[in-house]
Amino acid sequence: MDDRWVPAVCPCCASRTGGGTCPVCFWTDDGQSDADADVVRGGANGDLSLSLARLNFAVYGACHPRYQDLVRSPRPEELP
User: Fold this and answer.
1) With contact defined as beta carbons under 8 Å apart, do 63 and 45 qualify?
2) Positive or negative, the Cα torsion across 70, 72, 78, 79?
3) CA-to-CA distance for 27 and 74, rounded, in angstroms?
4) How high is the pLDDT of residue 5?
5) Residue 43, SS3?
């Protein structure tokens, strides 16, 4: 059995960054998933739904264009 810890996958960019606010896309993991991806929950992610954050990540490389200067590329061990 492998007892190594595996970091949580970011629901927005799919990088294995461990939860919290992802340094790769700047999405804050609030438990949202595909089941409610179109819902705007407010909170840490403001007016973003997970679906919109994913689209923004594909276009801008961040969950919102305003975060482009705050994100970084995933490290090799974080790649999906």
Assistant:
1) yes
2) positive
3) 14
4) 73
5) helix
